[in-house]
Design a protein that fits this description.
With about 250 residues, this protein is an alpha+beta fold. It has one domain: 4-Layer Sandwich (Glutamine Phosphoribosylpyrophosphate, subunit 1, domain 1), CATH 3.60.20. Helices cover about 35% and strands about 25% of the residues. The chain is built from six helices and twelve strands. Helix 1 crosses helix 2, helix 3 runs antiparallel to helix 4 and helix 4 crosses helix 5. The protein is globular, with a radius of gyration of 20 Å. The model has no long low-confidence stretch (mean pLDDT about 90). One of its GO terms (cellular component) is proteasome complex. Keywords: Hydrolase, Protease, Proteasome. InterPro entries: Ntn_hydrolases_N, UCP009120_prtse. This is Putative proteasome-type protease. GO terms for molecular function: peptidase activity.
């Protein structure tokens, strides 16, 4: 399984993912699910994926190929707006799934992949899109400034309580790590290394790219601090009336 998420903030974008693709008692594999494309000085794209690994890799290969030679479906270089880049990724993903769909269906395997696309094209605002396996897509908004794909339920509560467009990029990165850690604690199919990138708007360059393995002290410190804070908040919850009553009253 997979968990990826992105935050669309006033200052820019934060995108993060785990790296686990399979898990079991004695079998764990890891692959990067966060891919950065800078095809020209006036644009930057970050693509995260959740779903069939073979579909994902073929989509990435086609995206790279289309940057080198003209293609019928277009390319990231041809997009004038971020939604056009999302539309292009959706069409490539759908073409890959259709090419292998019959064989996969016979084997009972899903070829579907969902993507998050974040980035900016010069002269246009930065943004964040979710691209469904069917090729359609939608954008994050000020009311819902985060998007998730994969195993999203365990990491959602922190996002619902804290995420807002006004967060700084650094706070957004901390929130993403907390969300990833919460998911990994509840689902063995999600796990480190965690990858996090920060994109300040209008820069066309990442300011930070982090890779946090399970043995990195910062990851352990954040996890322990978050858990301790939740415990303190729980201990400070208001008491029931019957707890406050005098004994024998």
């Amino acid at each position: 399984m997979t968990y990826c998420l992105g935050l669309a903030l006033d200052e820019g974008l934060v995108l993060a993912s785990d790296s686990r693709t399979n898990a079991g008692i004695d079998y764990v594999t890891t692959f990067s699910k966060l891919h950065v494309f800078t095809p020209a000085p006036d644009r930057l794209f970050v693509l995260l994926s959740a779903g069939n690994l073979a579909t994902t890799q073929e989509v990435l290969n086609r995206v790279r190929r289309d940057l080198e030679q003209p293609a019928e479906l277009g390319s990231l270089l041809g997009a004038r707006y971020l939604f056009e880049a999302a539309d292009y990724i959706g069409r490539v993903s759908l073409a890959v799934q259709r090419a292998h769909g019959p064989a996969l269906q016979q084997s009972g395997v899903s070829g579907e992949t969902t993507f998050l696309l974040g980035g900016q094209i010069a002269g246009q605002p930065h943004g964040l899109y979710m691209i469904y396996p069917q090729g359609n897509y939608f954008a994050a908004s000020p009311e819902t400034p985060y998007l998730q794909i994969g195993e999203n339920k365990y990491g959602k509560p922190a996002l619902d309580r804290i995420a807002s467009p006004a967060l700084s990029l650094a706070d957004g990165a901390r929130l993403c790590i907390v969300s990833l850690d919460a998911t990994a604690r509840s689902n063995v199919t999600v796990g480190p290394p965690f990858e996090v990138v920060l994109y300040p708007k209008d820069t066309m360059a990442l300011s930070q790219r982090l890779k946090l393995a399970a043995d990195v002290s910062l990851l352990a410190q954040m996890s322990q601090s978050w858990n301790a804070g939740i415990r303190r908040a729980f201990d400070q919850l208001p008491r029931f009336d019957w707890e406050l009553a005098e004994p024998g009253a």
